[in-house]
Amino acid sequence: MLKLIITTFFLVFIAELGDKTQIATMLLAAQNKSIWPIFIGASLALACSSLVGVFAGSIISKYIPANTIQTGAAIAFIVIGILLLLGKI
Question: Do 61 and 69 contact (CB within 8 A), yes or no?
Fold first, then answer.
């Protein structure tokens, strides 16, 4: 169980570094003198969005095999990457 917690932590931590959410959070911190409300709000938002992802994944996995979900996610990331490169997003 500890291994799963550590793996999940590093996966989310690395995925969130430098994304637009972190940049928006840095902007809010730069514009305000009190950083703790920003930290608390951002932490709660990440926790809530993670909760949605965990519940959605557990429900979806009952109806769709894990390898199909993984393939679909990979295709979605590739499509998003191509759209980003082409300036469509």
Answer: yes
Token pair of 34, please? 């009190």
Domain locations along the chain: 11-85
Tell me the CA distances in angstroms from 83 to 19, 29, 47, 76, one per residue in order. Answer: 17, 30, 28, 11
Q: What is the pTM of this model?
A: 0.69
Under 8 Å CB-to-CB from 87, ≥6 apart: which residues?
A: none
In this predicted structure, the answer to whether residue 7 has a pLDDT above a threshold of 80 is yes
Q: How far is CA 58 from the centre of its chain?
A: 16
